[in-house]
């Protein structure tokens, strides 16, 4: 079996214009993501070894390949189908005490909260569908 290798420094369109450096492409892609419904059953994922249900609205996303540091970006979102959650929803890095950064190079603790109305306080919740996305550099 013969292995192939493709090496490029720059990508260009068919006319040879609009070059994009490979480092830009690599820097701008998600290094891990996961979608799941309710508990720790994964619908689909990339660079995830496991999803741990740590309690109502709390999950740990474990990376297959570690991040280079714990300073990656965690823009997350989710969805709920029930009418009572129309007030809004937020997901993101779990900062349960308000001061603790729960990102690590091998995993990230995330939380899901919803607002039952536009004036209600947020509640931790296992919503119908959640996705978590991680941007940064791999180790």
Detailed description of the structure:
- The protein is elongated.
- The chain is built from 1 helix and 11 strands; from the N terminus they run E-E-H-E-E-E-E-E-E-E-E-E.
- By secondary structure, the protein is mainly beta.
- Strand 9 and strand 10 form a beta hairpin.
- Strands 5, 6, 8, 9 and 10 form a 5-stranded antiparallel beta sheet that branches. A 4-stranded antiparallel beta sheet has the order 4-3-11-7, with no helix packed on it. Strands 1-2 form a two-stranded antiparallel ribbon.
- The two termini are 29 Å apart.
Mean pLDDT: 77
* Class inferred from helices and paired strands: mainly beta
- Extract low-pLDDT stretches: 81-87
Give the amount of beta strand, in percent.
Answer: 35-45%
The separation of the N and C termini measures 29 Å
The coarse overall form would be elongated
